[in-house]
Design a protein that fits this description.
globular, 6 helices, 188 residues, Rossmann fold, 6-stranded mixed beta sheet, 8 strands, two-stranded antiparallel sheet, alpha+beta
């Protein structure tokens, strides 16, 4: 088995979950796996995108209701993918045409990281800073660390997207919502 031999079974599992109408969320590699499971091509991007870069909404979908037209999530990827034929594009960045997409009401792919926390980014940089080169869309670890306060802005966006994806908030419940205690996400 090759170093990435586990990807084939993972793609098959995601394909089966989608066919069974299960809720599927893919973040970064997970979005690439969903795209591949739906028959789209996954390939190296024109450049790595590592750091804090803005994305712009490109489509309207209930998953993104309440999400600003432009926001700045964290990125750490060198690959991209074609939009699956069943998918609706939701966001793009300057160098990555498909940053987010939805398939129906149960499948969401995010190339960027809304789940990033200060702790998870510190751990990522500790273990993988060697992957950062000198490209135009690769921020030096010091710049990434200097902008960790951005994580605070991501949390409400993540909560909104997860609530929409899981169906927690219907229109009637939204007005009565009591905010839950903050959930801890310690690793990406």
């Amino acid at each position: 088995m090759t170093r990435l031999g586990w990807l084939g079974p993972e793609i098959a599992m995601v394909r089966e979950a989608i066919a069974a109408d299960k809720t599927v969320l893919g973040i970064c590699l997970g979005a690439q796996i969903i795209a591949k499971a739906l028959g789209a091509r996954v390939y190296p991007g024109s450049a790595k995108e590592i750091g804090w870069f803005p994305v712009q909404r490109t489509g309207s979908h209930p998953f993104f209701d309440g999400i600003p037209d432009s926001f700045t999530p964290f990125h750490w990827h060198g690959e991209t993918f074609d939009l699956p034929c069943e998918a609706m594009p939701l966001a793009k960045s300057e160098i990555t045409q498909t940053q987010a997409f939805a398939v129906g009401q149960r499948v969401l792919g995010l190339q960027f990281h809304l789940e990033a926390t200060e702790d998870s980014l510190r751990a990522l940089l500790k273990d993988a800073a060697h992957e950062i080169g000198r490209g135009a869309f690769e921020q030096h670890p010091g710049i990434i660390l200097a902008n960790l306060n951005q994580c605070t802005n991501l949390r409400p966006l993540l909560d909104t997207v997860l609530d929409r994806l899981t169906g927690i908030l219907g229109p009637a419940q939204k007005a009565r919502r009591v905010l839950p205690a903050r959930r801890s996400i310690s690793r990406m």
